[in-house]
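Chapter review: from sequence to fold.
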Amino acid sequence: MEFVADAPTLLLLFGAALLAGFVDAIAGGGGLITVPALLLAGVSPIAAIGTNKSQSVFGSGVASATVIRKKIISIDEVRAPFVRAVLGSAVGALIVQRVDPEALDVVIPIVVAGIGSYFLFAPRVGDVATEPRIRASIYRNTVVPIIGFYDGFFGPGTGSFFAMGGVALRGLGVIKATATAKTLNFGSNVAALAIFVIGGQVVWAATAAMIAGQLVGATVGARTMISGGTRLIRPLVVTVSIAMLVKWFLA
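The token string follows.
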């Protein structure tokens, strides 16, 4: 099946990107929606990952601008980990174009199950900030680039991984952790996109339709995240995690 930029296909991609932008801004995991939609539209697997970055960068950019404008986080707080996320993602995007991404089929379900279980069975975690479990320098130099690498290599769930790391390892409240995750995810998206563009792995017709959906969904989602608090973020993280597990086991 080859990609055909007809009206029904572009409408499908617009709708998928709108929903993904909303979900990504709140809990991460929007790639669970957009990557399958691109594959369904006839885009090849590697190009689907590259094209997903070309539209998700707008959603993560809007979400990042919103949380910074609302002063949930400051640029100074995220500058150092942002750079690490960029570097990790660039390496991941380079490697995925040379290896079989199906190698992640064993690792991804384990990581996703851990995220969902953490939020499901520790319901009060993240309501307020707690003591960090690892130093900021260790977190930004190890955990952040590893998650960034995953985003460049594949992507779905990256926002959840960054948020999870902020809560579990740095002791952040869930709102702060989720807001920080938006900026780091933006950096990893930009870096991966640059590599995929150079590699010719972006379908621009699909991108154009999906950008509009991402901008709408991300704007609404970021505002909902700020006002909804832990009552909305936690259930969405668990739901997205379960949905991702179902997708992988049924694939």
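Two observations follow directly from the output. The chain has a mean pLDDT of 83. The chain is about 75% helix and 0% strand.
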